[in-house]
Amino acid sequence: MKYTTVFFDLYGTLLDIHTDESSDSAWQALSDCLASHGAVWESLDLLRRAFADEEASLELREAGKPDHEIDLAPAYHNLFALRGIEPTDEMVAEAAWTFRSASTDYNKPFDGATDLLDALRASGRRTVLLSNAQALYTLPELKKFGIAPHLDTVFISSQAGWKKPSEQFYRLALQTTGSDPEHTLMVGNDPDADIAGARRVGMDGAYLHTSDWFGDAPAAVKQFEGADYAALLDFIQNA
Protein backbone atom coordinates (compact mmCIF):
# COMPACT_ATOMS: atom_id res chain seq x y z
CA MET A 1 0.00 0.00 0.00
CA LYS A 2 1.69 3.19 -1.20
CA TYR A 3 -0.43 5.63 0.81
CA THR A 4 -1.44 4.57 4.30
CA THR A 5 -2.57 8.05 5.38
CA VAL A 6 -4.36 10.72 3.36
CA PHE A 7 -4.33 14.35 4.47
CA PHE A 8 -7.17 16.52 3.19
CA ASP A 9 -7.63 20.24 2.86
CA LEU A 10 -11.19 21.32 3.68
CA TYR A 11 -12.40 24.39 1.79
CA GLY A 12 -12.41 23.80 -1.94
CA THR A 13 -11.48 20.15 -1.39
CA LEU A 14 -14.24 18.62 0.74
CA LEU A 15 -16.48 21.67 1.17
CA ASP A 16 -17.62 24.01 -1.61
CA ILE A 17 -17.86 27.47 -0.04
CA HIS A 18 -18.14 31.15 -0.84
CA THR A 19 -18.08 33.91 1.77
CA ASP A 20 -18.32 37.70 1.73
CA GLU A 21 -16.98 39.12 4.97
CA SER A 22 -17.42 42.68 3.70
CA SER A 23 -21.22 42.48 3.48
CA ASP A 24 -23.21 44.88 5.65
CA SER A 25 -25.64 42.09 6.52
CA ALA A 26 -22.85 40.05 8.12
CA TRP A 27 -21.66 42.96 10.24
CA GLN A 28 -25.23 43.83 11.19
CA ALA A 29 -25.80 40.26 12.34
CA LEU A 30 -22.64 40.43 14.45
CA SER A 31 -23.68 43.80 15.88
CA ASP A 32 -27.11 42.43 16.81
CA CYS A 33 -25.53 39.41 18.48
CA LEU A 34 -23.18 41.57 20.54
CA ALA A 35 -26.01 43.93 21.50
CA SER A 36 -28.14 41.02 22.69
CA HIS A 37 -25.48 40.47 25.37
CA GLY A 38 -25.18 44.16 26.25
CA ALA A 39 -22.21 45.04 24.02
CA VAL A 40 -23.71 47.83 21.93
CA TRP A 41 -21.78 49.28 19.01
CA GLU A 42 -23.03 52.64 17.79
CA SER A 43 -22.37 51.97 14.11
CA LEU A 44 -21.19 49.23 11.78
CA ASP A 45 -18.21 51.37 10.80
CA LEU A 46 -17.03 51.53 14.40
CA LEU A 47 -17.48 47.79 14.77
CA ARG A 48 -15.58 47.05 11.56
CA ARG A 49 -12.69 49.29 12.60
CA ALA A 50 -12.53 47.79 16.07
CA PHE A 51 -12.37 44.26 14.69
CA ALA A 52 -9.73 45.27 12.13
CA ASP A 53 -7.65 46.84 14.91
CA GLU A 54 -7.93 43.72 17.06
CA GLU A 55 -6.95 41.49 14.14
CA ALA A 56 -3.99 43.73 13.28
CA SER A 57 -2.81 43.60 16.89
CA LEU A 58 -2.89 39.81 16.83
CA GLU A 59 -0.98 39.75 13.55
CA LEU A 60 1.65 42.12 14.91
CA ARG A 61 2.44 39.77 17.78
CA GLU A 62 3.31 37.02 15.30
CA ALA A 63 5.00 39.23 12.70
CA GLY A 64 8.35 37.44 12.94
CA LYS A 65 6.93 33.99 12.17
CA PRO A 66 6.53 33.13 8.48
CA ASP A 67 3.30 31.27 7.72
CA HIS A 68 1.96 31.92 11.21
CA GLU A 69 -1.76 31.74 11.90
CA ILE A 70 -3.66 33.82 14.43
CA ASP A 71 -6.67 32.73 16.44
CA LEU A 72 -9.49 35.27 16.12
CA ALA A 73 -11.10 34.28 19.43
CA PRO A 74 -9.38 37.15 21.33
CA ALA A 75 -10.64 39.63 18.71
CA TYR A 76 -14.23 38.51 19.22
CA HIS A 77 -13.69 38.53 22.99
CA ASN A 78 -12.54 42.14 22.90
CA LEU A 79 -15.59 43.27 20.91
CA PHE A 80 -17.48 42.53 24.11
CA ALA A 81 -14.78 43.78 26.48
CA LEU A 82 -14.48 47.14 24.72
CA ARG A 83 -18.12 47.72 25.62
CA GLY A 84 -17.71 46.68 29.24
CA ILE A 85 -18.90 43.09 28.92
CA GLU A 86 -16.77 40.14 30.04
CA PRO A 87 -17.93 37.35 27.73
CA THR A 88 -18.02 33.64 28.37
CA ASP A 89 -16.41 31.27 25.88
CA GLU A 90 -19.90 30.40 24.71
CA MET A 91 -20.67 34.06 23.95
CA VAL A 92 -17.44 34.40 21.96
CA ALA A 93 -18.27 31.26 19.98
CA GLU A 94 -21.81 32.53 19.35
CA ALA A 95 -20.55 35.86 18.02
CA ALA A 96 -18.02 34.21 15.72
CA TRP A 97 -20.54 31.69 14.37
CA THR A 98 -23.13 34.43 13.86
CA PHE A 99 -20.70 36.38 11.70
CA ARG A 100 -19.54 33.29 9.84
CA SER A 101 -23.08 32.19 9.07
CA ALA A 102 -24.19 35.64 7.93
CA SER A 103 -21.13 36.12 5.70
CA THR A 104 -21.49 32.75 3.97
CA ASP A 105 -23.26 32.78 0.61
CA TYR A 106 -23.13 29.01 0.25
CA ASN A 107 -21.31 26.14 1.91
CA LYS A 108 -21.89 22.46 1.26
CA PRO A 109 -19.89 19.27 0.86
CA PHE A 110 -18.94 18.29 -2.66
CA ASP A 111 -20.99 15.31 -3.80
CA GLY A 112 -19.42 12.11 -2.55
CA ALA A 113 -17.05 13.71 -0.03
CA THR A 114 -17.98 11.54 2.95
CA ASP A 115 -18.26 8.45 0.73
CA LEU A 116 -14.65 9.00 -0.31
CA LEU A 117 -13.50 9.31 3.29
CA ASP A 118 -15.40 6.16 4.24
CA ALA A 119 -13.95 4.20 1.32
CA LEU A 120 -10.43 5.17 2.31
CA ARG A 121 -10.97 4.18 5.92
CA ALA A 122 -12.59 0.91 4.87
CA SER A 123 -9.43 0.13 2.90
CA GLY A 124 -7.33 0.52 6.05
CA ARG A 125 -6.14 4.06 5.41
CA ARG A 126 -6.34 6.97 7.83
CA THR A 127 -8.05 10.23 6.89
CA VAL A 128 -6.68 13.44 8.39
CA LEU A 129 -7.88 17.02 7.99
CA LEU A 130 -5.23 19.73 7.63
CA SER A 131 -7.03 23.04 7.19
CA ASN A 132 -6.04 26.69 7.07
CA ALA A 133 -8.99 27.97 9.03
CA GLN A 134 -10.42 29.42 12.21
CA ALA A 135 -11.56 26.77 14.68
CA LEU A 136 -14.47 29.01 15.70
CA TYR A 137 -15.79 28.68 12.14
CA THR A 138 -14.59 25.26 11.08
CA LEU A 139 -15.49 23.05 14.04
CA PRO A 140 -19.20 24.02 13.83
CA GLU A 141 -19.12 23.44 10.06
CA LEU A 142 -17.59 19.99 10.45
CA LYS A 143 -20.39 19.19 12.88
CA LYS A 144 -23.10 20.80 10.73
CA PHE A 145 -22.21 18.78 7.65
CA GLY A 146 -21.42 15.56 9.51
CA ILE A 147 -17.84 15.37 8.27
CA ALA A 148 -16.03 14.97 11.59
CA PRO A 149 -17.01 11.31 12.17
CA HIS A 150 -15.43 10.41 8.82
CA LEU A 151 -12.02 11.78 9.84
CA ASP A 152 -9.48 10.16 12.14
CA THR A 153 -7.79 13.40 13.19
CA VAL A 154 -8.37 17.13 12.64
CA PHE A 155 -5.71 19.85 12.54
CA ILE A 156 -6.81 23.49 12.22
CA SER A 157 -4.26 26.24 11.69
CA SER A 158 -5.71 28.68 14.24
CA GLN A 159 -5.20 26.06 16.95
CA ALA A 160 -1.72 25.08 15.77
CA GLY A 161 -0.41 28.63 15.28
CA TRP A 162 0.91 27.73 11.83
CA LYS A 163 -0.75 27.46 8.44
CA LYS A 164 0.06 25.67 5.20
CA PRO A 165 2.51 25.72 3.47
CA SER A 166 4.42 25.94 6.77
CA GLU A 167 6.66 22.94 7.33
CA GLN A 168 5.89 23.25 11.04
CA PHE A 169 2.19 22.64 10.43
CA TYR A 170 2.82 19.64 8.19
CA ARG A 171 5.38 18.16 10.58
CA LEU A 172 3.02 18.63 13.53
CA ALA A 173 0.38 16.59 11.73
CA LEU A 174 2.85 13.93 10.60
CA GLN A 175 4.40 13.53 14.03
CA THR A 176 1.12 13.58 15.95
CA THR A 177 -0.41 10.90 13.73
CA GLY A 178 2.82 8.91 13.44
CA SER A 179 2.64 9.13 9.65
CA ASP A 180 5.54 8.44 7.31
CA PRO A 181 5.70 11.28 4.74
CA GLU A 182 6.68 8.81 2.01
CA HIS A 183 3.41 6.98 2.58
CA THR A 184 1.21 10.03 3.15
CA LEU A 185 -0.71 11.84 0.42
CA MET A 186 -1.93 15.44 0.66
CA VAL A 187 -5.15 16.20 -1.24
CA GLY A 188 -5.99 19.84 -1.81
CA ASN A 189 -6.97 22.60 -4.22
CA ASP A 190 -4.17 25.11 -3.56
CA PRO A 191 -0.98 24.54 -5.60
CA ASP A 192 1.22 26.30 -3.05
CA ALA A 193 -0.32 25.63 0.36
CA ASP A 194 -1.39 22.06 -0.31
CA ILE A 195 0.87 20.68 -3.02
CA ALA A 196 4.18 22.55 -2.82
CA GLY A 197 3.93 22.64 0.97
CA ALA A 198 3.51 18.89 1.14
CA ARG A 199 6.45 18.32 -1.18
CA ARG A 200 8.74 20.30 1.13
CA VAL A 201 8.29 17.69 3.86
CA GLY A 202 8.60 14.70 1.53
CA MET A 203 4.89 14.07 0.90
CA ASP A 204 3.16 13.56 -2.43
CA GLY A 205 0.30 15.87 -3.33
CA ALA A 206 -2.84 15.24 -5.38
CA TYR A 207 -4.42 18.38 -6.80
CA LEU A 208 -8.16 18.97 -7.23
CA HIS A 209 -8.72 21.90 -9.59
CA THR A 210 -12.00 23.14 -8.12
CA SER A 211 -11.47 26.90 -8.35
CA ASP A 212 -10.68 29.37 -11.12
CA TRP A 213 -8.50 31.20 -8.60
CA PHE A 214 -5.77 28.63 -9.17
CA GLY A 215 -4.10 27.19 -12.25
CA ASP A 216 -2.10 24.00 -12.59
CA ALA A 217 -0.07 22.43 -9.80
CA PRO A 218 3.13 21.18 -11.45
CA ALA A 219 4.43 19.73 -8.17
CA ALA A 220 1.44 17.37 -7.88
CA VAL A 221 1.87 13.66 -8.56
CA LYS A 222 -1.65 13.70 -9.99
CA GLN A 223 -4.10 16.42 -11.03
CA PHE A 224 -7.87 16.13 -11.29
CA GLU A 225 -10.38 18.48 -12.86
CA GLY A 226 -12.93 19.32 -10.21
CA ALA A 227 -13.74 17.21 -7.16
CA ASP A 228 -13.34 13.96 -9.09
CA TYR A 229 -13.39 11.66 -6.09
CA ALA A 230 -13.90 8.48 -8.10
CA ALA A 231 -10.69 9.08 -10.05
CA LEU A 232 -8.88 10.16 -6.88
CA LEU A 233 -9.90 6.99 -5.05
CA ASP A 234 -8.80 4.86 -7.98
CA PHE A 235 -5.43 6.62 -8.03
CA ILE A 236 -4.87 6.11 -4.31
CA GLN A 237 -5.89 2.46 -4.34
CA ASN A 238 -3.70 1.64 -7.32
CA ALA A 239 -0.66 3.76 -6.52
From TrEMBL:
Transmembrane segments: none
Protein keywords: Hydrolase, Magnesium
Biological process according to GO: small molecule metabolic process
The protein's required cofactors: Mg(2+)
Single annotated GO MF: hydrolase activity
UniProt protein name: Haloacid dehalogenase-like hydrolase
Coiled-coil ranges (or none): none
SUPFAM superfamilies reported in the protein's UniProt record: HAD-like
Lineage top rank: taxon: Bacteria
Xref: Pfam families: Hydrolase
Source species of the chain: Pseudoscardovia suis
